[in-house]
């Protein structure tokens, strides 16, 4: 036994069980392998022996991109992982052209970093291969966790019950000092806790009724230059007139992927002819013109998300020792913003900080401290999702608490983006992007100095400033503190 420390559960750091071997599970396992003698990943799927789609992650066919922050966190956990992606034929974005087209205009420029683009399948493959090499991490595959195992007084989780998938359906009990649920959007954690008698708050929900439609294309030999030229082309959907978002980019082996997206119930088509027509009807013809000459290798495939949820496990008066949850099992986001894997990485970092503190100064309520930190990380991403998606007709919020600052945020962010685009202000544009990709706190662009700068250049902005001071008084700093969430600095202080 390498390191006898303390957890409220058993006082030991011997074994941790992770439910689910998706992206959050793999990141968590890698980090925890430095602190626990043994890490067990229980995964319900048979894991493929080459990069392949699998049943438990149906989202994997659809484009998956890292934010800059997500990439950095992954690099720390899996040094040089991008080299493994490159070996599998994934392209680097360096110096390729990025097209960002929104309702105010377009920004076209070279991609400045050597970031690699990939399909979710090869990303998971690369991370899993690394995890499989760790001597103290073990996979238990084709086994589904069916419930939590508590102590007699139910105050502590001491393991999980698993059922083998297939005809036999054999069950067994696995025991550990800590159980972490990373089973994603199909997590049954709330139900399992209720079955043990815990009172679980209802999650906040955004009824978003969003649809994705993704199709893949291959480049013919004379078209290879296209993969050298384009990084991403993003035509943003416009809530005011209901246009789809359309995105075009490349993944490994010169395969192009195109996605149509829209929240609010009017789903993008999955019929090939209608799909082409929908691309042709976007405000810019650039993607449609490219697709006309490419050879499809799949039909357009749909993915629907009826609602986004944000659990509030941190608010539970009683929470069992020995149990944690992170990734999509805690909160999910609108996939078009590409934040889910980044939030999972940020959560893993926060958990590591908490573990280090726990080893030095053990606290009885360790798990509740962690849950609160994770919630602090979730908040900015959730808030940005709501501010964006509530602009669409047909999207509703159902939550325990009233939303803070959304109406102001929507107007302000729209004016911010307009100014950044029309004035070709790369500094503003970069900040807007950094906030939406979770590298900067929303308060980095919603502080008195920035708000004055952005709002004082247009009549609409000036009117918004007057309305603010009439409704909430002065100074602006106090007004912003009053109307906006606190956006805890924790989530921005680590990486
Ligand atoms: C269409 C779409 C596009 C997306 N695009 C992006 C993007 O561009 N960028 C980004 O950052 N994020 C994106 N996301 C989000 C991203 O997929 C997730 O946030 C990320 O994978 C982290 O998820 P996770 O590990 O928590 O869950 P998952 O990756 O879904 O993994 C959960 C795992 O748990 C297993 N499992 C489930 N239940 C059990 C059980 N009872 N017992 C054992 N195993 C179990 C499953 O088989 C699976 O392997 C997208 C999501 C969707 C839906």
Would you kindly provide a written description of the structure presented here, covering whatever features stand out?
This protein has 495 residues and is an alpha/beta fold. It folds into three domains: 13-64 and 122-202 and 310-386, 3-Layer(bba) Sandwich (FAD/NAD(P)-binding domain), CATH 3.50.50; 92-115 and 209-305, 2-Layer Sandwich (D-Amino Acid Oxidase, Chain A, domain 2); 404-491. 36% of the residues lie in helices and 21% in strands. It is built from 16 helices and 17 strands. The protein has helices spanning 23-32, 68-77, 81-87, 120-133, 189-195, 224-229, 272-280, 286-292, 340-360, 366-389, 406-422, 426-436, 448-455, 459-472, 476-483, 490-493; strands spanning 15-19, 38-42, 97-102, 105-110, 137-140, 143-150, 157-164, 171-175, 178-181, 204-218, 230-235, 245-251, 255-262, 295-296, 301-310, 323-325, 396-398. The strands form three sheets. Strands 3, 4, 10, 11, 12, 13, 14, 15 and 17 form a nine-stranded mixed β-sheet that branches. A five-stranded parallel β-sheet has the order 5-2-1-9-16. Strands 6-7-8 form a three-stranded antiparallel β-sheet. Helix 10 crosses helix 11. It is globular and about 65 Å long. Flavin-adenine dinucleotide binds at residues 19-25, 42-45, 56-57, 59, 62-65, 70, 144-145, 182-184, 186, 212, 303, 327-329, 335, 338-342, 344.
């Amino acid at each position: 036994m390498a390191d006898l420390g303390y957890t409220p559960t058993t006082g030991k750091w011997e074994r941790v069980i992770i439910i689910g071997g998706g992206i959050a599970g793999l990141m968590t396992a890698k980090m925890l392998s430095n602190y626990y003698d043994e890490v067990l990943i229980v995964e319900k799927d048979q894991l493929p022996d080459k990069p392949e789609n699998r049943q438990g992650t149906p989202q994997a066919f659809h484009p998956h991109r890292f934010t800059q922050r997500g990439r950095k966190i992954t690099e720390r956990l899996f040094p040089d992982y991008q080299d493994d992606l490159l070996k599998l034929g994934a392209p680097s974005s360096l110096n390729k052209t990025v097209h960002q087209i929104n309702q105010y205009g377009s920004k076209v420029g070279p991609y400045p970093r050597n970031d690699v683009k990939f399909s979710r399948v090869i990303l998971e493959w690369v991370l899993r291969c690394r995890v499989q090499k760790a001597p103290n991490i073990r996979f238990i595959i084709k086994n589904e966790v069916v419930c939590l195992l508590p102590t007699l007084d139910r105050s502590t989780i001491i393991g999980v019950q698993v059922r083998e998938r297939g005809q036999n359906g054999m069950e067994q009990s696995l025991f550990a000092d800590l159980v972490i649920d990373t089973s994603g959007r199909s997590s049954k954690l709330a139900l399992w806790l209720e079955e043990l008698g815990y009172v679980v708050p209802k999650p906040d929900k955004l009824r978003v009724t969003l649809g994705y439609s993704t199709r893949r294309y291959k480049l013919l030999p004379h078209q290879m230059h296209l993969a050298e030229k384009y990084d991403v082309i993003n035509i943003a959907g416009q809530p005011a007139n209901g246009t789809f978002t359309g995105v075009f980019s490349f993944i490994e082996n010169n395969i192009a992927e195109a996605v149509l997206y829209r929240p609010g119930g009017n789903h993008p088509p999955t019929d090939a002819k209608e799909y082409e027509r929908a691309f042709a009807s976007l405000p810019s013809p650039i993607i449609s013109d490219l697709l006309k000459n490419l050879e499809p290798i799949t039909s357009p495939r749909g993915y629907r998300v009826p609602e986004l949820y944000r659990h509030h496990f941190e608010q539970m008066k009683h929470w069992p020792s020995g149990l944690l949850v992170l990734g999509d099992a805690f909160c999910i986001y609108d996939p078009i913003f590409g934040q889910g894997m980044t939030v999972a990485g940020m959560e893993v970092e926060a958990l590591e900080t908490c573990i280090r503190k726990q080893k030095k100064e053990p606290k009885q309520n360790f798990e509740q401290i962690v849950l609160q930190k994770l919630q602090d990380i979730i908040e900015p991403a959730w808030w940005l999702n709501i501010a964006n998606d509530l602009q669409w007709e047909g999207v509703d919020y159902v939550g325990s608490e009233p939303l803070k600052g959304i109406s102001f945020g929507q107007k302000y962010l729209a004016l911010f983006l307009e100014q950044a685009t029309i004035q070709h202000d790369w500094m503003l544009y970069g900040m807007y992007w950094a906030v939406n990709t979770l590298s900067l706190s929303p308060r980095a662009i919603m502080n008195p100095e920035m708000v004055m700068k952005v709002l004082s250049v247009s009549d609409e902005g000036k009117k918004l400033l007057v309305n603010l001071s009439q409704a909430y008084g002065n100074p602006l700093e106090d007004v912003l503190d009053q109307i906006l969430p606190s956006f805890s600095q924790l989530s921005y202080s680590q990486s």
